[in-house]
Amino acid sequence: MNVKILVSQAHPAAHALAQALSMTNGALDESRVGIAACLYDAPLRMADPGEFLNLPWFGHQATKPVYPASVVKLFFLDALASFREQGHLAEHEEDDRAAEQMMAISSNEATVYLVGRLTGADDGAPLQGEALEEWCAARHRVQQWFQSQNRSEFAGINVLHGTYEDSPYGRAKQIRNGKNGNLLTPLSAAALMHDIARGARARSDWMMGLMNREFQRHSNDADPAGDQVLGFLVEGLPRDVMTWSKAGHTSWTRHDLVYGETPDGKSFVLCVMCDGEWSATDKSFLPNFAQLFYRHAFQA
């Protein structure tokens, strides 16, 4: 993949990475972290600067595919918006309800439902032979749609299956055998967020509304189901920074993808993906990173 990455030790994200890693006392090293970040002089919602790759963005292992956990839900939302806009999927209020829950509280049930709607290949009992082959072929519909866009930002990604509390079952487990797991890169996630915020994807305003994270920002220590603030990047940002995000974590990953607008009229896209058991259980690295990133980018 031929993608030009700005790698500068003077970039706010580079400073934040070095300092946030030092605060882990060796529990996390840079090989376990992927980053893609871009800074803007104006809110993306009001001033379109063009495509992500044409801007001076920063990357650290930004093109390394990793299991994305629930960050992949933004890609399914994007596909839903586009399939509806193009008339490939009939409008249904149940899809809206699922989309809202998928983004607001990261509902796995809603995601599995929407994957079935998008592909026509619902979860169910195991299949054999030609029936399984046909089901697997249909399940690749969203993946093929992203591939058809021929964008280098999306190289190396897999958008193939829903997310589950413990494990997929039946035919959903069958398709996961081998190399059929979801994969995203920090670059792919940051570039998609960038395009949605600047209005370059179908129904961008609708998707932005579903990603608004303000309703979950709170000052107490509560950790409600589906919270995507505590332990993630948004927690470390000043309260007067408006945020739109999609976080994700499993027993071996912790990620966050954020678009933010500052009080003085600037904005940023930031994706940080961490893997390893320590990252999965730790709730300090991502908030610390965000706090340091913001300090170096906007308060220096």
TrEMBL record:
It catalyses: a beta-lactam + H2O = a substituted beta-amino acid. Gene3D superfamilies: DD-peptidase/beta-lactamase superfamily. Its EC number is 3.5.2.6. GO terms for molecular function: beta-lactamase activity. InterPro entries: Beta-lactam/transpept-like, Beta-lactam_cat, Beta-lactam_class-A. One of its GO terms (biological process) is response to antibiotic. Residues 98-273 form the Beta-lactamase class A catalytic domain. It comes from the Bacteria. Pfam families: Beta-lactamase2 (PF13354). Belongs to the class-A beta-lactamase family. This is beta-lactamase.
